[in-house]
Design a protein that fits this description.
Layout (H helix, E strand, L loop, with lengths): L1 E10 L8 E10 L1 H9 L9 H14 L1 E7 L1 H9 L5 H16 L3 E5 L5 H11 L5 E5 L6 H25 L11 H10 L12 H12 L2
Parallel strand pairs: 1-4, 4-5
Antiparallel strand pairs: 1-2, 2-3
Helix pairs in contact: 1-2, 2-6, 4-5
């Protein structure tokens, strides 16, 4: 039986710098989920970088896909507004992916603890007759895992290009990484465009610095 099933996932929700990337992977028939599983497609967090790159190339030959890159400025604008937060920004981005690919069903890795509220908000943003399935840890579905790989590889490539552009290795972008912490301290003024200035870790660091004067 022919279907159109879409998986949506993100990469880079937590870092203090760099983009958040969201991806949708669309399959047209039931057997394609098995093809993805047979390739070794699973949650990108459990796949080594080289293997993720290899899988990316195989996945894009099997699925239709849509990738959206949210730069730090757009994330900050959303968090500064009264209407949006990070969850709603992700929901709006998921809606753009759904409206573009027009699936019959979409399985989405839900970032919110309140799945019902997230479902209602997302439903209000889509223009298609799509059945929405929202789950935590939805990467257990091969089609969502495929989307997670597309998002992760895209973000990793963007981060590497960014490091080459500014000629500084700033580490992972997470505040648990000493390289990232030092980079933030030393370069927040010389490279302000790559930081998420609404992040608590970013604000906390400079509020602490100011209190020492």
């Amino acid at each position: 039986m022919k279907i159109t099933l879409l998986g949506i996932d993100e990469a880079g929700r937590g870092p203090v710098l760099g983009p958040l990337v969201m991806a949708g992977a669309l399959i047209k028939k039931e057997s394609d989920e098995k093809l993805l599983a047979d390739l070794g497609v699973k949650d990108s967090k459990f796949i080594l970088p080289k293997k993720r790159q290899e899988l990316y190339q195989k996945i894009i030959k099997l699925v239709k896909y849509k990738i959206i890159i949210l730069e730090p400025e757009e994330i900050d604008q959303a968090l500064k507004s009264q209407e949006l937060n990070l969850n709603w920004l992700e929901a709006q981005t998921s809606a753009k992916i759904i409206n573009h690919l027009k699936p019959k069903r979409a399985i989405i890795d839900c970032p919110s603890n309140n799945i019902k509220a997230y479902h209602t908000y997302l439903k209000s943003k889509i223009q298609t007759k799509t059945e929405l399935i929202l789950e935590h840890k939805a990467e257990s579905h091969p089609v969502v895992a495929a989307a997670s790989i597309l998002a992760k590889v895209t973000r990793d490539n963007l981060i590497e290009k960014l490091k080459q552009k500014i000629k500084i290795d700033f580490g992972s972008g997470y505040m648990t990484d000493e390289k990232t912490v030092n980079f933030l301290k030393e370069h927040h003024q010389t490279h302000p465009e790559i930081f998420r200035k609404t992040w608590a870790s970013y604000k906390r660091m400079f509020q602490k610095d100011l209190s020492e004067f």
